[in-house]
Predict the structure.
Amino acid sequence: MADVSDINVAPESASLGDFPLLPEGVYRAVITDSSKKDTKSGTGSYLSFKFTVQTGGHAGTSIFDNLNLWNPSSEAVRISMQRYELILQRLGTTSGRVSNTEDLHNIPIDIKVVVEEYQKNDGTKSRHNVIKDFFAVGVPNNQPQQSQQQGMQNKQSQQQALCPY
């Protein structure tokens, strides 16, 4: 038990508020937690990764990435599987298979973080961090960005081919 009798808290400071945002950029991070969670709708599950920044002024800050690997939407599973495969590749997992996500913990990886705006359930707008790309440590970041741009161009071409208007 801890004696906290010397701490005075003003009632208006009792709110947790929003999580602090990381400025957009590339950060060295490691996966510090991972778990399989059920979706709110109960129709599927997702893999949740907690990445923790390791260096610089934002060391210790966490950002989450969720992958819908078990979902009734085949498109959601396809996108999440591509993202999962990229994470495995960038972490240096050459087998393409991992039996336990704890095997991925504490391996350095560079993550590209952006700030995106979204609408809350109450209709107000807020902002949150999103991981946009992953880079193997020691690989120049311009190479993965080029491949990501090429991937986006390929995806746009595929969408145009599927949708004639």
